[in-house]
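[Structure tokenization] protein backbone as discrete codes

[Encoding] learned vocabulary of local backbone shapes

[Begin record] amino acids and matching fold tokens:

___
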Amino acid sequence: MPAPRVLGGRYEVGSLLGRGGMAEVHVARDTRLGRMVAVKLLRSDLARDPSFQARFRREAQAAAGLNHPSIVAVYDTGADTTVEPGGGRVELPWIVMEYVEGRTLRDMLRTDHPLAIEECLSITEGILNGLEYSHRMGIVHRDIKPANVMITPAGEIKVMDFGIARAVSDSSATLTQTSAVMGTAQYLSPEQARGEQVDSRSDLYSTGCLLYEILTGRPPFTGDAPVAVAYQHVSEQPRPPSALAPQIPPAVDHVVLMALSKDREHRYQSAADFADDLRRAVEGRPLRGASFATQTFAAAPPTAATTVTPPVAVPVPVSPPTGALPRVSDGDPPYEEDPARRRWPWVLLIVALVLGIGGVGYALLNNDGGSSSGEQTSSAPATVAMPDVVGSAQADAESQLTRLGLTTTVTQQADDTVAEGNVISTDPEAGAQLTVGTSVTLVVSTGSNAAVVPDVSGKTQEEARAALTAVGLSVGDVSTGDSPTVDKGEVISTDPAAQASVPKGSAVALTIASGKVTVPDVTGKPLADAVKQLRDLGLSTNSTETTVTTDADPGTVVTQDVSPDSSVDVRTLVNLTVAPERTATESPTSTPTGSPTSSASPSSSPTSSGSQTGAVGTPTEDGNGQ
């Protein structure tokens, strides 16, 4: 059997896991760390193309800086030189990634659909958690689709394949010199389809398309060619998901349609906002952001006092950008429809265009005729007074404005004085005279922007992360430190400290216990002091008297068996050797202590027995008080 292929001197390449339009993914073994990894190899037939080389390197650079539980980690990258059949040599780059056991969301949809609504929303929230992190790190994925989402047997969500990801500061650049648009047709944002600048909100649109598909079993737009699907993303409105799956509640409809707004200013502005409304939809709480998108699908009723004739809707086709038509990756197979049904949208579109243009011409002719004859052909538009809805709940304010024939646009703003969900201000302000149909902007409070750092000391890192997320904070830098009182792997402290007030969205640094302490130097200290110092550090002690002659003071530590400044586990035993208590000794010329003159002779020399025993303090002297 041939020897396995080894990359970088350490990765033994194994069986094929999958193949895409640009690369192959193999299981591999990291011989240095003894773990299984996944290795992505650029296809050899594309290795000579500089644009594919650049895209492959960009994936490694984009994903290597991301470290999040919902993103497949990148461990290493490199390139091997291979020899082609003709003898030519080519650099074949590779990326080493986290090996994730599980299956893609695409595979799950093929076998498990329909999914429960709660499961659909949970999967989408996991994707949004990963995107919130990557967007905060300045990376836009640009190719969110079911085939790029892994689900582990434990239900964990992993976003992968940052192959066309770009930094936000560079997101306006195209990926090829022909200004081609990369991505998968069913999940392209309108701005991607038009070849415009892309930002994080494009990922949210793609996530909305993905959520639409896992709820209903089909993407919001389908067609027989990628360009036709891209055209629909630009110019057509999707049907509400509940039109295909009646069990979907209105709140979920609103969230999906908000995410699929053509104008990115009217979409969710962050993945966190999108995920928050998903949770609110599941829990039956009022939505924060999903109000604008519903206006496209529900017209405001006329007031009782006035009758408003709605204008004739004239569909205006949006042309693709000049130059080359968008090139769309077919990483996911196009959704198949019946051929006869494919033709009907185009037929209807042409009919609508003809009728619309005819209606506009007819209206212009009537207006000209009326003007020339001096007759008034239309009445002044109806107006209403803008009510004062400041301080009202968002739903109440929208209902009141709708009854007056006005439409609403909602923006959100933190406010420490206005309760969450209530209106802070309106544009126009109360009292203004407005034409029926005017859009009113409601500025709605998201509540206080301040959050109090919870006390997470003694909790595991995951428990701390959950506690911080619950109050609107995130985990920042994680470092380790020594602590004799906190178990290994638990939080010692946070920065900012517990109970500190910080803006929501702030990152809190964690210091995690290493389970170790540094041993101090206790030699020369009294035994009691040395034992206390070591035990305060969580260390155990044992002491014995030395049998070696020493000049050290009695009862002081002579040696310790663990070197000072050593880093050891908490509760490690440190053995101490202590200088013994001194005993009275006799000199060769001393007089026995029992001699009558040992202590009373006035002419005793300095070396007499009495002087010597007095120096060492014998019990006899202590007892006699001499």
